[in-house]
Amino acid sequence: MRLNLIIILFLLSGITANGQTSDIKPAEKNPLKTFCNPLNLSYRFCLDKPSRREAADPVIVLFRDKYFLFASKSGGYWYSTDLLNWNFVTTPDLPLENYAPATVVIGNWLYFMASTSPLPNTIIYRSADPVSGKWETVNDSFPIQLTDPAFLADSDGRIYFYYGCSNKDPIMAVELDKGNKLNPIGAPVACFGGNPSLHGWEQTGDYNNNTDSPWIEGAWVNKYNGKYYLQYAAPGTQYKGYADGVYVSDKPLGPFTYQPDSPFSSKPEGFIAGAGHGATFTDKYGNLWHIATMTISVKHMFERRLGLFPSGFDKEGHLFTYTGFGDYPVILPEYRYKKPDELFRGWMLLSYKKKAEASSQISTCPVGFAFDENIRTYWSAETGNKGEWLSVDLGKVSTVNAIQVNFAENNTSLFGRENILCHQYIVEYSTNMKKWEMLVDKSRAVEDLTHQYEVIEKPVKARYLRITNNRVPGGTFAISDFRIFGKGSGSLPSMVSSFKTERDKDDQRIIKLTWDKQQDAIGYNIRYGNQKDNLFHNYQIYNDTSLTIRSLNKGVSYWFVIDSFGENGVTRGTKPKIVE
Q1: Distance of alpha carbon 154 from alpha carbon 104, whole angstroms
Q2: Would you state the torsion angle of the CA atoms of residues 43, 47, 49, 51, taken in this order, to the nearest 10 degrees?
Q3: Span 69-102, pLDDT tens digits
Q4: Lesser CB count within 10 Å: N end or C end of the chain?
């Protein structure tokens, strides 16, 4: 009941997410609309070598009843009416090869800016009709050379500006003159820098175990209940631990106080990890979301994707993002939901580590890599020829509700967007490997999509699934993971009824948890936080029965609970355990 009251108060008080509020009434619930991270977008091939795809540093704003999505070096931007189906826009009017775009709604205009380099001047643009791709220049000589800009249109009509991307310098802020081309008013002020000696999650490395200085970057601000939430990313975009923290103030220029349960957005493990350098926005129904950067970083450190996660404020006014099962199917509600975890569709992964076969394979990219829940590895056929195939044996007949085909780029020499072909393929299913039936037919697809998530309108019973290539954009037929979602035919996993915790006496940023293996469990989701009733941090792992977390904050107590999950569902852990 308390959490329901929080959500109600949040909706009544309104939230300025870069100057926007929502009074739209909820629509009828439609739980069948789902999505699966990473988002299924037309990720562009980068313009420089090596050939790989990228999108990062995302921003979503709601403008004239449409969502507009901007991301670094994407050669354009997207718009959508439902956050599910996206249309792509190209335009020569914007510097779309610059990093970290920033947008804000001011009156009847959508404003745009990106990091300065490689332009000689920092320019601010605006459009009254961004769907058309037509933009005009507002200020062609903004006096600050900057990286990672962000705007805030305050509820009183004043405009503020934040920026910074450095492993030395702090996040900066300044007010802008709305009547003078949005030029700065006064000198910028320093807000905060990194402090990895206190904040374990700011320490570099996939598992926060390196010692070099973290990058503090990616500012974004929301206003809620009269307070300003200045968000930032650390420790570096190439790490699994890439996350967003937040400082809070009663004033838009500070001083700011660290939110002790930061990072408020993190996803350190799973099929794809990372939930940093993002933006928090309100949808048409009053729900808060966080769009963030997720990491691959194999071919290049800037090989990245986008993820979308439900967000909110708890009873203490703490900003949170819920990433539990954040790369499984998630409900996209057309109503105001009550709790973020209710958006988990309940379709479980059926394909993890299952027996697989293929028409061929490269020795360094074996067939098992297509079912290891690791986007950084992939299976590849020897060629990209029509007829190359990959199949999986689920072990027993199960209900299949959805699939996600995550294509990889192997031996490609493609750059940009123009003249890029798309993947064409079919997926078939069988109960006995003798009779095969069509599940998904993409043999004539025309849209270049990399992480193809398909919901099966009428769920099928299947034990075997096979994907067969018709065409690839270039290179070989390669898949990082062929993921099958649904329900098995067995029992729920047994409960983790007890576990041990050992917080490092010399370094409180580190804690180790151990527990017993549970029957029918393929993995465990560790939920934790510094409030017993709000365990919004999630750490999802497979197989292991121990975990070392190095991302805690010194001087902060945490509550932990461990859930077990398998092909038949999730079994919640016992009462949370506090660790001082």
Answers
A1: 11
A2: 30
A3: 999 999 999 999 999 999 999 999 999 999 999 9
A4: N
Cβ(189)–Cβ(239) below 8 Å: no
Neighbours of 456 (CB within 10 A): 18
Q: How far is CA 3 from the centre of its chain?
A: 24
- The hierarchical CATH code for the domain 500-579 is 2.60.40.10
Chain segment 332-386, per-residue pLDDT in tens: 999 999 999 899 999 999 999 999 999 999 999 999 999 999 999 999 999 999 9
pTM for the structure as a whole:
0.93
Please, which contacts does 208-216 make with residues 24 or more away whose CB atoms are closer than 8 Å? 208/235, 208/241, 208/509, 208/550, 208/551, 209/550, 212/167, 213/167, 213/168, 214/167, 215/165, 215/166, 215/167, 216/164, 216/165, 216/166, 216/167, 216/170, 216/171, 216/192
DSSP 77-131: EEEESSSSS-EEE--SSS-TTSSS-EEEEETTEEEEE---TTSSSEEEEEES-GG
3-state class (DSSP) for residue 10: helix
What is the per-residue pLDDT across 217-256, written as a single tens digit (0 to 9) for each? 999 999 999 999 999 999 999 999 999 999 999 999 999 9
CATH 2.60.120.260 fits 348-487, yes or no: yes
- Distance of alpha carbon 187 from alpha carbon 174, whole angstroms: 7
Sorted by where each begins, the domain ranges of the chain are 2-343, 348-487, 500-579
One-letter amino acid at 287 equals: N
Tell me which DSSP letter residue 182 carries. T
Q: Which residues, at least 6 apart from 191, have a Cβ–Cβ distance to it below 8 Å?
A: 162, 170, 171, 172, 173, 230, 247, 253, 254, 256
Distance CA 44, CA 53 (A): 5
Cα angle: 141, vertex 147, 148; to 5 degrees: 115
Total number of residues shown for the chain: 580
CB of 15 closer than 8 Å to CB of 224: yes
CATH class of 2-343: mainly beta
Burial of 374 (0-12, 13-18, 19+ CB in 10 A): middle
CA separation for the pair 511, 547 (Å, rounded): 8
- The mean pLDDT of 178-187, rounded to a whole number, is 94
Per-residue confidence band for 2, with pLDDT thresholds at 50, 70 and 90: very low
Q: Which two tokens stand for residue 460?
A: 């099928």
- Eight-class DSSP state of 356: E
Distances (CA, A) of 322 to 91, 289, 536, 537, 553: 35, 9, 6, 7, 19
Distance, CA of 417 to CA of 74 (rounded, Å): 9
